[in-house]
Amino acid sequence: MAKEELRTISRNLQELQKKLSLLIDSFQNNSKVVAFMKSPVGQYLDRHPFLAFTLIVFIVMSAVPVGFFLLIVMLTSLAALLGVIILEGLVIAVGGLSLLCILCGLGFVSLVMSGMMIASYVVVSSLINYWFSPRPLTQQNTSGDFLPAMKSADFEGLYQE
């Protein structure tokens, strides 16, 4: 039963790997992506994947504060149409300063998060490769212990005098 579960898990992982490779191929074959990757910025990010991943995390995390700031700017612009011009300058200045502080904090958080995500990706992929890698079959010796099947060539040079 355990062998069947391992086989189904490995089949599911192979199917998932095929689907992910097709998705990645479709992204890499997109004309806009190809044009970006040929640009100097794309080549620089291709040589520095940690920076690229950090940039993606930062952009995703900063969307909400930037959206709130733009909403405040639009609301104060509407207030300026009504005649509250001095208040508009004050609100936009305070909002811009707070947005700058929030974005600096999000930059640090995105560095930490991308580092943790990359480290966990490396650990999980190593564990999956270890668990599902093909191993030699075990054989039982005369004393009843299970030993991994090894060739005599594996022992060459171990007991040289």
How would you portray this structure in words?
- With 161 residues, the chain is mainly alpha-helical.
- Helices cover 76% and strands 4% of the residues.
- The protein is built from 5 helices and 2 strands; from the N terminus they run αααααββ.
- The chain has a two-stranded antiparallel ribbon with strand order 1-2.
- Strand 1 and strand 2 form a beta hairpin.
List the main descriptive attributes of the protein structure presented here:
single chain; 161 residues; 2 strands; 76% helix; Lipid droplet assembly factor 1; LDAF1
pLDDT < 50 stretches: none
Order of helices and strands: HHHHHEE
Could you tell me how far the N terminus lies from the C terminus, measured between alpha carbons in angstroms?
47 Å
Number of DSSP E strands: 2
C-alpha Rg (nearest Å): 28 Å
Mean pLDDT: 80
Count of separate DSSP helical elements: 5
Helical residue percent?
A: over 70%
Indicate the overall shape: elongated
Organism: Rhinopithecus roxellana (Golden snub-nosed monkey)
Transmembrane segments: 50-73, 80-108
Pfam families: Promethin (PF16015)
Family: Belongs to the LDAF1 family.
How would you briefly describe this protein structure?
Helix content is 76%, strand content 4%. It is built from five helices and two strands; from the N terminus they run αααααββ.
Q: How are the secondary structure elements laid out?
A:
Blueprint: H1 2-28, H2 31-38, H3 40-47, H4 49-81, H5 85-131, E1 138-140, E2 146-148
Antiparallel strand pairs: 1-2
Helix pairs in contact: 4-5
Organism: Rhinopithecus roxellana (Golden snub-nosed monkey)
Keywords: Endoplasmic reticulum, Lipid droplet, Membrane, Transmembrane, Transmembrane helix
Transmembrane segments: 50-73, 80-108
